[in-house]
Design goal:
Strand content of chain A: under 5%
Radius of gyration of chain B: 17 Å
Number of helices of chain A: 16
CATH class of the largest domain in chain A: Mainly Alpha
Number of helices of chain B: 9
Mean pLDDT of chain A: 90
Structural class of chain A: mainly alpha
Shape of chain A: globular
CATH topology of the largest domain in chain B: Rossmann fold
CATH superfamily of the largest domain in chain B: P-loop containing nucleotide triphosphate hydrolases
Number of domains of chain B: 2
CATH architecture of the largest domain in chain A: Orthogonal Bundle
Largest sheet of chain B: 6 strands, mixed
Order of helices and strands of chain A: EHHHHHEHHHHHHEHHHHHE
Strand order of the largest sheet of chain B: 6-7-8-3-9-10
Oligomer: heterodimer
CATH class of the largest domain in chain B: Alpha Beta
Shape of chain B: globular
Distance between the termini of chain A: 31 Å
Helix content of chain A: 55-70%
Order of helices and strands of chain B: EEEHEEHEHHHEHEHEEHH
Low-confidence stretches of chain A: 355-362
Number of domains of chain A: 2
Number of strands of chain B: 10
Distance between the termini of chain B: 30 Å
Strand content of chain B: 15-25%
Structural class of chain B: alpha/beta
CATH architecture of the largest domain in chain B: 3-Layer(aba) Sandwich
Largest interface: A-B, 37 and 49 residues
Mean pLDDT of chain B: 91
Number of strands of chain A: 4
Chain lengths: 362, 237
């Protein structure tokens, strides 16, 4: 046999290089958009970006960590309430207080994981929901942030928020519009950081370990993977990110109540829908999912409860006929991956042309 | 290499390991036989740390590992295959080995690419390196079990019915691979019902029944013993 090239492990593809450039361009476009876009568009994009971020964190939990949580609203709610609590009671500026949203969710995640990790599968899922309900009921007792009826961010806090003065003069807008632009920019940064961070994580060897733990925990342990530590890692990271996003969502809304902030429909059911129809266990999936979700919501906005029934039916249809979601369907046919994490062995004996090297994508 | 001292384990009223005591010197290949339900796979789970014993002591290279978790025992030099293959089904064959090599030896991914490729060549899986492991045939799944265990660079290799369900030819090629690994100095403990495959590799046989060690010794003596023949009567040899 002729001298063969050395073996190598590759992840990048041509599509991923193009995708990287397009993503960079898109991020820049999103950042400069407030210069010409209407306030309505900025608000819609804020909704899309924050839901996308929530979906990516749920995807990390369920799609990569195998931890199907239906209690993520606990972290959205606690993050939002941490923001309102510190702004109203301690008088901290809402922008730096966002960090406390993430930290509060992280703190809540520790006892939640401690109890929920004792359970598997459906029992784990139910336990996260139960814990979220307990937190909702406890927060409803917190009188200084409005108890069960909720409260608003004081005008004194929102009016003088960091950066809003500069945005008002930069774009020549009123303070309410400036707040929307600020929240939108933070949402862009959060979404970009989340997708970038997730992609980075999956390409480190921790990404491989995560996939191994998800597929079979016993075997993962037997090859030296600390399965317990991987589960803690994804649960805590997801909680922190979800809490941060929750804080940001309610910073933009400026009004909160326990029922809204701890809503299982808004912060978990919709998020699961987005991930599942787009394609669980891929970074592309939630991006496709949020576009479909937003389109459906806009189309069906006037049909009340029919909207939810249609969402449910579409969700069921996708699970039955395309279990890997719309992106999975597309990726299986075309072999295209925008955020490839597959390690492909090349070179050596595989550099021979008769070896079927390009077969078998995920 | 490995020493078990009166190791016991029960699930409720069912005793699956009953005062198991034996030792395997470095470089030896030991075969374990016994009827279904004798506690063979349980014994492996106790050795690898996937199960914790109720009583007794397990030593690996002179170190007490009785309470050591499975992932640490892998780092300490134990590699295993599972009776029912447990591939990381959504990863490719190559990625399965990369997980094992990178974490089992605590090295960076880049540092283990060549050794993973070498193991794939030796175990006949190189052409399937980039195939998703969930779609493999039974033979290839068994090969992957072996390859993944090897990727952790074990000093003690535990094989659980790796020849079961294979055709004569497939079995022969697997035995050749295992013999070569053994010749390379790896200590092996092998549970197997396919006795001719087992006896062509191992130097000693251990017979397990109802969680107890019935006999241990040279394969010829063991197979000739009346007690062993009684236990195996009616069982496919």
């Amino acid at each position: 046999m002729a001298h063969s090239s050395p073996y190598a492990s590759l992840t990048r593809t041509r599509a991923s290089r193009v995708a990287g450039l397009v993503a960079l361009g898109l991020a820049v476009l999103l950042l400069v958009l407030p210069a010409f876009a209407s306030r309505g568009l900025i608000q819609d994009l804020f909704f899309i970006l924050t839901m996308l971020t929530l979906a990516q964190f749920w995807n990390l939990l369920a799609g990569y960590g195998g931890l199907v949580s239906i209690g993520q609203q606990a972290f959205v709610g606690i993050g939002a309430y941490a923001l309102f609590g510190t702004v109203i009671l301690a008088g901290i500026d809402p922008v730096p207080a966002l960090l406390l949203s993430g930290l509060a969710a992280l703190l809540l995640a520790i006892p939640t994981a401690y109890f929920a990790f004792r359970l598997q599968g459906a029992y784990f899922a139910i336990s996260t929901w139960v814990i979220a309900e307990v937190v909702r009921l406890s927060v409803a007792q917190w009188k200084s942030v409005g108890g069960g009826t909720g409260t608003s961010l004081p005008r004194s806090a929102t009016g003088s928020m960091w950066f809003t003065q500069a945005i008002e003069t930069l774009f020549d807008v009123r303070s309410a519009a400036a707040r929307d632009i600020l929240a939108y920019w933070l949402a862009v940064l959060l979404a970009v950081a989340t997708i970038g961070g997730l992609y980075w994580l999956l390409r480190t060897r921790r990404g491989l370990a995560l996939a191994a733990v998800r597929d079979t925990m016993d075997a993962a342990r037997s090859v030296g993977v600390d399965a317990g530590r991987m589960k803690w890692l994804v649960f805590l990271v997801s909680a922190f990110g979800t809490g941060l996003t929750g804080g940001l969502i309610y910073l933009q809304k400026a009004r909160i109540s326990p029922d809204a902030a701890f809503s299982v429909t808004d912060w978990t059911a919709y998020v699961i829908f987005i991930v599942v129809i787009g394609g669980i266990g891929t970074i592309e999936g939630p991006i496709i999912g949020i576009i479909v979700f937003y389109a459906l919501q806009t189309l069906l906005a006037d049909y009340g409860s029919w909207y939810l029934m249609v969402l449910g039916l579409i969700g069921i249809a996708v699970m039955l006929f395309a279990p890997r979601g719309l992106w999975g369907l597309f990726s299986d046919r075309t072999g295209i991956e925008l955020f490839p994490v597959r390690r492909r062995l090349t070179g050596g004996l595989l550099s021979h042309p008769h070896h079927p090297e390009s077969k078998d994508h995920g | 290499m490995l020493a078990l001292d009166t190791v016991s384990k029960s699930f409720g009223a069912l005793t699956v390991a009953d005062g198991v005591t034996f030792a395997v010197p470095r470089g030896q290949a030991l075969g374990i036989i016994g009827p279904n339900g004798a506690g063979k796979s349980t014994l492996f789970n106790l050795i690898t740390g996937n199960l914790a014993p109720d009583a007794g002591r397990i030593e690996l290279m002179g170190r007490d590992v009785t309470r050591m978790p499975a992932m640490r025992r892998c780092l300490a030099g134990i590699g295993r295959s599972f009776q029912i293959p447990q591939p990381f089904s959504r990863l490719t064959v190559f990625e399965n080995l990369m997980v094992a090599a990178s974490f089992g030896r605590d090295m960076s991914e880049a540092a283990v690419v060549d050794s993973c490729a070498g193991i794939l060549e030796r175990t006949g899986l190189i052409a399937k390196a980039n195939t998703v492991s969930g779609s493999l045939s039974l033979l290839d799944r068994k090969r992957l079990e072996l390859a993944r265990a090897l990727a952790t660079d074990p000093q003690l290799l535990l094989l659980d019915e790796i020849a079961g369900g294979l055709t004569e030819g497939e079995c022969r090629s697997l035995v050749e691979t295992i013999s070569a690994i053994h010749a390379g100095g790896v200590t092996i403990i092998w549970i197997e019902h396919v006795l001719h495959a087992l006896n062509s590799v191992v130097e000693r046989l251990l017979v397990l029944n109802f969680g107890r060690v019935i006999a241990i010794g040279a394969p010829g003596e063991i197979m000739a013993s009346r007690e062993v023949q009684e236990i195996y009567l009616g069982i496919d040899i």
